[in-house]
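Budget justification note: compute hours in this period were largely spent on complex prediction jobs such as the one shown. Inputs:
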Amino acid sequence: MTEVSERLRQATERDQIRRMRFVSLLEGTTLIVLLFVAVPLKHLGIYRGATSIVGPVHGLAFMFYIWMLIQTISGGGWSKGEIARLLIGAFIPFGGFVNERALKRRELLGARD
Amino acid sequence: MYLWLKAFHVAAVVTWIGGMLILSLVFSVLSGNALSRSSDVSGMVDAVRKWDRNVTTPGMLLTWGLGLAMAMQAGWFGARWLTLKLVLVLALSALHGVQSGVIRRLFWNPSFEAPMLMRASGTMTPVVFVFVAILVVIKPF
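Corresponding output:
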């Protein structure tokens, strides 16, 4: 690979990871709002419609995160362990924030091939 | 309200599927063609990549959001035709995700050989979409 194409690769992958970090935070935040705000509001009888608003919003954020993950790994350069970690994190409360930190580390290290 | 959602949903679907077909065409043109790997095509790959990011992907997100809003408003969740349609839409979304990743790779590595799946996506996309259209228009079950 030429130096120009290597620089292009690093810049492109850095942009991709930056977008992935944003979506990871979005997914993580909507899961926290769903579990720790909307669900208690519903079960305490304060606002029963809370989950039917936050639920679909989190559903869309989760789908977009999985889509971004497919898009990111299809560009190549990701190990099975990293992919599994990014996938599992989406199902666990606060996992989105842990993933965002991991993605930031990778962004700082420079995207590998 | 429902008809407004439907109008914008259809417009978003056309934008999304049209974008996927553009990607399919690029993979088809570039597959195994040494001439097409010249620097002349790097501008085209970059333009398609940007189109995908700025037009096709927002089209897909709007398709999801408006489709969800329509299904909730009409109370269709649980209907078998919708469940099957959602499976097909998820498959199309996944295919688009792979296309989007591969075009990014082609941008910085023009000699990268796109997987067979990408070359077949030009056929797969319309075929799957025909089933989606049948399910949503006919609602057979």
